[in-house]
Design brief:
The protein contains 7 helices and 6 strands. The protein is α+β, with helices and mostly antiparallel strands and 188 residues long. Strands 1, 2, 3, 4, 5 and 6 form a 6-stranded antiparallel β-sheet that branches.
């Protein structure tokens, strides 16, 4: 079963070839999550890669007994990188609405990676892009002004901001829900 969205995402990688993208897409299996499903990454094997085709997903953690949203996405590759090799803060994932996608067991892909270096490079590129997205999120949090963080996020992901529940968006931007109302009024 070929999924056009997944295949297109794989073909968009700089290291991709049409043959390798098709080969890799055939290793993914369909998966779905009900809205409200939440789990800590340690319960998921670190050898799995997800591709969210459509949905709304967030990552969050608890620090000093408070929940802090780290990221939100509608689609794209989702990597369970937390707790794989280190004992860092435990990150949870919540599917905020019904989500569909694809899952790749990296152990299952290993023989193909060994036979075809292009498949291996494609997977490395997916991991590298995830690291780059993390750097962009970190840059957003380094903006000192709450107004700047809001405008930066608005410029980057306007459509996504409209879909995120108010309290979660406030957590993501590190502002109080009350102040977020003021920012929305001011900049929209």
């Amino acid at each position: 079963m070929i999924n056009r969205t997944l295949l297109k995402a794989l073909e968009s990688l700089h290291t991709s070839t049409p043959e390798a993208a098709m080969l890799l897409s055939n290793l993914f299996v369909p998966i779905s999550f009900k809205g409200g499903t939440s789990f800590p990454w340690y319960e998921q094997a670190s050898h799995v890669l997800y591709f969210v085709e459509c949905g709304l997903v967030r990552g969050y953690l608890y620090w000093k007994n408070e929940e802090h949203t780290c990221w939100v996405m509608e689609h794209g590759f989702l990597l369970p990188v937390n707790q794989s090799f280190t004992e860092t803060e435990l990150e949870y994932t919540e599917f905020m609405r019904d989500s569909t996608g694809w899952m790749l067991n990296l152990e299952r892909a290993l023989p193909q990676m060994q036979r075809d270096p292009t498949v291996c490079r494609m997977l490395f590129e997916i991991f590298q892009r995830n690291i780059e997205m993390g750097k962009m999120r970190e840059l957003t949090f380094k903006l000192r002004s709450r107004d700047e963080r809001f405008r930066h996020m608005f410029d980057l992901q306007k459509q996504l901001m409209d879909k995120i529940p108010h309290v979660i968006l406030a957590s993501l931007l590190s502002v109080t829900p009350k102040y977020l109302y003021e920012l929305k009024k001011k900049y929209r």
